[in-house]
Amino acid sequence: TFERRPLIAGNWKMNLNHLEAIALTQKVAISLTEEQLALVEVAVIPPFTDLRSVQTLVDGDKLHLVYGAQDLSPHDSGAYTGDISGSMLAKLGCTYVVIGHSERREYHHEDDTVVNAKVKAAYKHGLTPILCIGERLDVREAAGHVPHCTAQLDAALAKISAEQVASIVIAYEPVWAIGTGKVATPEDAQEVCAAIRTRLAEKYSPEIANGIRILYGGSVKAKNVAAIMAQPDVDGALVGGASTDADEFATIARFP
Ligand code: PEP
């Protein structure tokens, strides 16, 4: 048993065609037993264009999977061509929404103010943020990773209440480990996840901090997940590349 129910979330990024997306969802679901899915929460995070089909599968076949989106607009509605609102995602049955992924921060120039607005939008529409934070390689090499991550956390959670934050999921994703095959050591992951929990305890309360799930993300694979998950402050994984292979992803979800 775990202090917090682990979450294994698969971020497919901009991958798979529609047929492959449906097949992957089905294959992941049938690869895991109800007992396994009771122990570990498993989420798929497909592109927006697959969400309706994933919803139909999960609802229709009563799959014990949850799902979410990779981003949302900070706005409720209006003249924001190409954007997707929190209410649209809520209507599609999304549980989670990834916010502040390093690829959004880098390629879409999302700063901490935008990330904070998106966290607020998620709560407004009943979605649970998977808030991504993490340092780039130069920051790590200068040993600035802990203050960098706690500063990102503070900024993302500006004016977020204790009641709201209690349900949040934080993902510590060192940028140098994403999609590079360079996994952080279990000790590296633990150091930052523990610092995040301490910061949450200071900002809110130890009780709230102890209930919040903190994931590690960055080249998680079936072969390295167990060592990372053995760390006391790591409560799951945000999996990119390995999440589009059903067998690999299901094996990761069976880590206990
Ligand atoms: C991610 O995109 O969140 C991620 C962790 O990717 P990967 O597992 O491919 O490093």
From TrEMBL:
> Could you say which enzyme class this protein belongs to?
isomerase
Recorded catalytic reaction(s): these are: D-glyceraldehyde 3-phosphate = dihydroxyacetone phosphate
Enumerate the Gene3D superfamilies for this protein. Aldolase class I (3.20.20.70)
Pathway involvement?
Carbohydrate biosynthesis; gluconeogenesis; Carbohydrate degradation; glycolysis; D-glyceraldehyde 3-phosphate from glycerone phosphate: step 1/1
Give me the gene this protein comes from.
tpiA
This protein's GO CC annotations: cytosol
Please state what the protein is called.
Triosephosphate isomerase
UniProt keyword annotation of Ion transport present: no
Give the family per the record. Belongs to the triosephosphate isomerase family.
Annotated substrate binding sites? 11-13, 179, 219, 240-241
Q: How is the subunit organization of this protein annotated in UniProt? A: Homodimer.
Keywords, sorted A to Z: Cytoplasm, Gluconeogenesis, Glycolysis, Isomerase
Q: GO:BP terms for this protein?
A: gluconeogenesis; glyceraldehyde-3-phosphate biosynthetic process; glycerol catabolic process; glycolytic process
Q: Kindly give the CDD domains that the UniProt entry links to this protein.
A: TIM
Question: What PROSITE patterns has UniProt attached to this entry?
Answer: TIM_1, TIM_2
Give the Gene Ontology MF terms in alphabetical order. triose-phosphate isomerase activity
Q: Which residues form the active site?
A: 101, 173
Q: What does this protein do?
A: Involved in the gluconeogenesis. Catalyzes stereospecifically the conversion of dihydroxyacetone phosphate (DHAP) to D-glyceraldehyde-3-phosphate (G3P).
- Please classify the protein's predominant subcellular localization into one broad category: cytoplasm
EC number, UniProt record: 5.3.1.1
* Compartments where located: Cytoplasm
